[in-house]
Amino acid sequence: MIQKDSRVEITTIDEFNNKFEKWGNGTRGYQIEDAIIKIPLTHIGKVNFLSCRNVKFEKVVQVYFDDTSDIYFLDSTFTSNIHFHGNINGTFTFSKIHVNSLNLSNLNFNGNANFSDITIDHKIYIGENVTFYKPTFFYLLHNVNEKVKGLLFQDVSFESDVRFTCFYIDELYFDRCRFNSYCYFHSCELGYLNISSSEINSTINLNEVNIQKGARELYRMLKHEMIKIHNKIEALRYHSKEMEEYRNEVKRKKTNKGDKLILWLNKWSNQYGLNPWRGVSFVLVLSVIGFFPQLFLLKESYFSMRWTSWSDFLEVTDTTIKYWITYLNPAHKITYMDDFKPYALAYFWGNLWRIGVAFGYYQTIQAFRKYGKW
Predict the structure, then answer these.
(1) Partner of 122 for a Cys bridge, out of 38, 101, 264, 303, CB 3.0 to 4.6 A?
(2) Domain ranges for the chain
(3) pTM (2 d.p.)
């Protein structure tokens, strides 16, 4: 049995105004709750406040905000297009919304703006002279239509911090936008992210963001943008991400084996110049691989696999550690084991791996210099 919708149906302008229009202290606005609006709302102009909860709008909604205080749209559905313009001086909340198409233009957000838990049928367009002056949050945005173009910001200024969290859309565009404060992306699944034509004057941070197409070019562009504003730390991080994306591209190709090896070594030796402690680990691992097999290739060994006594064990351990520390010096002598002579294969093996140890030292030093002058 299908449960009947208990919300009141509004079919005329007079009915809408009589039920929802509010006046007080020289202000005019609307408080709309538990309703199905079956008429276009294109006459709403210069409202000072607006609150909507559990409302279904079946026709076009167009609102001009005249220094409006607080705006709330909660638990509502828009089956047609929405257009917002004007100035909002208070908080703007757009939460738990199912929307066909949203258009924000010629609009100033002078208070905090919160867009959360939004499902898109077609697209959201925010552009043409839109400015966010206070912190702005976009949270849990996803589309239900495979043909959806996603979210487009065009000619938008972010004068304060902006955060994009839990985005699951195919395309996210920033065209001629200005980021004058911190921008943070977290836990997003994006088919494509384009930010190349925008002006970046502060840090952009991408954390746990998966971009299916164009990720390497995006990281390369962000790296150079961070260099322009002298943010070397973020530039280094984007360089690391760029190299990792390139490594993933090369892995899918049968050619470029030389690049595959170089990128693999750079990843595991210092994380593309970002992590010196990985370089230290790299040196220790390669020295163990290069040194300890030589102990079993001595013509006359200084130790026995048979247990004799604790004093002999400690003496052998002391000697082994001494030789291993000597091996950690890539310039050590071939005869660094004193009178214990290895077979020819051991010389080849040891010298091969000490080249790797020397490379590890170089990579470690490079990573320690990551905050130095470029």
Answers:
(1) 101
(2) 8-251, 275-368
(3) 0.76
